[in-house]
Amino acid sequence: MSLVLTPEIRSSRIAAINPVAKLAAALLISLTLVLSIDWVSAGVAVALEALLLPFAGVGARQFWLRTAPIWVAAVAAGIATALYGADSGGVLWGIGPVTVTQGSLSLAGAIALRVIAIGVPGVILFATSDPTDLADGLAQLVHLPERFVLGALAALRLVGLFIDDWRALGQARRARGIGDGGGPLGRLRRLWSQAFALLVLSLRRAAKLATAMEAKGFGGTRTRTWARRSRFGRADVVVVAIGAAMAIASASAALLTGSWNLVLS
User: How much is the pTM?
Assistant: First the structure.
C-alpha cells in the first residue's frame, strides 16, 4: 500500500520532464475525451497511451497497484451504464425494468474506455513526479497562490504517514486484547473506532504542522524565494505537444468515422 501513496520514482525520460508539462499534457487529453462519449476517441487515446508506457519508467507491479482503482471504476461504470443507460437497438438481455440493449452496451464500452483513457495519464503523472517539483512548478510557472501550493504539498507529504499510523493503532489495540474476535459486527465496530482515532491523530498533527509553518513564515505576504528553480525547457514543450497531438488524433479519428458524440449537444 505504501507503494501506491509514496512510490519510488525511477530514472526515466518522462521522470526528468517538468511535472507542469506532464500535467498540461494529461489535461489536454482528459478535456478532449470529456467532450465526447464514443468508442473511437477513447480507444485511440488508450492505444496511444499504451505505446508511451514503456518510456514512463513505471514498474509493472507499481502500475497495476496504482491503476487498480481505475480498472474497478471502469468496470463499475460500464456495468451501471449497460443496465441503466438509455436503451436503443435490439434487446440483448432483460429482467423486469432492467434491460441491456445494443445501444446501452455500446455506450457502456465507451464509458469504460473513457475512464481508463482519462485515468492512466493521471497515474503516470503522479507516479513519475516528485511532489516538491510539482509544487515548485505550479508556484513558479503557473503562478498559483504560494500559500495554497505549499499547504497542499505538506498535506501530500503526510499522506504516507497514514499507513504507519494505521498499522501502529492496530498493533496497539491488539496488544491491549481488543484487536481480535467479535465476529463481523465486532470487526466493523473496531474498524470505525480505529478510523476515528486516526482522524483525531491526523487533525492534531495537521494543527501542529500549520503552527510550525506559520512560525517559519510560510504564511507571509512577502515575495517568496525558492531553493530550486523550476524551468520549462524544450523537452517539456515536446511533452505538451505530444499530449496535444494525442488529443487531436483521438478527436480527429472520432470525427472521421462519424462516431463523435458531443456531450454538450
Answer: 0.74
